[in-house]
Amino acid sequence: MKEESLKLSIVVPTYNEAENIGVLLERIRNTMEKAGLGDDYEVIIVDDNSPDGTAEEALKHAKRLGIEDRVKVIVRYNERGLARAVVEGFKNAEGRYIIVMDADLQHPPEKLPEMLRELESGGDIVIGTRYKHGGRDEGLTVLRKIVSLGATAIAKLLLPQTRMISDPMTGFFGLKRSVVSNKLNVLDPLGYKILLEILVKGDYDRKRIREVPIVFSPRYAGKSKLTAGEGLNYLKHVIRLNNYRILKFALVGTTGVVVNEAVLWVTHYQIGLPLYISGLLSIESSILNNFTLNNVFTFRNEKTLVPLHKRLARYHLAAGLGVTINYITLLSLSYLLGIEPLIANLIGIVAGFLANYSLSEHYVWRRA
Ligand code: GDD
Ligand code: MN
Question: Which of 85, 200, 250, 289 is deepest in the core (most CB within 10 A)?
Answer without folding.
Answer: 85
